[in-house]
């Protein structure tokens, strides 16, 4: 057990004692003319867990119920009953000090069960907050990413019912990702390129000129792929 855990456990055990709970209300924001006095709060099982933002935050040492936003006329015992009706502390018929060892141990088991539940709830809430944060971020992300359809293509493109792959990009439904896309074209040196190259050599244009066809897209074959999933959809061979 770390020092911090030891201090926390010691504090929790001390809060079993009404006198110790009373000591925790050093800077209680209500005066003695109110119903929610430190004495009544301590008697009802509460100790102060005030923070800068919540100076009237209290917690029950048994059920770990946290309450704040007190009104001067609030009765601590009644509030405890309203917000945590099954708290074992409220069911006690005798003071802790006069209980048998067995009774105290039973009570302590219930208290630890409540503590575990409180920790579990807190962890679960934090986890759900993280999940919802990630979900929001993902939503923003999908809003930023442009749709597979090029945004500059304002005019509605006509969908080909049976795609014919030519030398121009066109609209189709990608059979792989099912998105409506405009095909992305890349150029490959095909038969026509090699034919032109051979023809140039035959004509005596072999000093580098024969390589020109490999740099001219207009004589190369076109490969159409999906700009969304990058699957190859088809090709257009010029020869
Ligand atoms: Zn309680
Ligand atoms: Zn696709």
From TrEMBL:
Keywords: Cell cycle, Cell division, Centromere, Chromosome partition, Cytoplasm, Cytoskeleton, Membrane, Metal-binding, Mitosis, Nucleus, Phosphoprotein, Transmembrane, Transmembrane helix, Ubl conjugation, Zinc. One of its GO terms (cellular component) is nucleus. The chain crosses the membrane at residues 192-216. The keyword Manganese does not apply. GO terms for molecular function: metal ion binding. One of its GO terms (biological process) is cell division. Residues 154-238 form the LITAF domain. Signal peptide: none annotated. This is BIRC5. InterPro entries: Baculoviral_IAP (IPR051190), BIR_rpt (IPR001370), LITAF (IPR006629). Belongs to the IAP family.
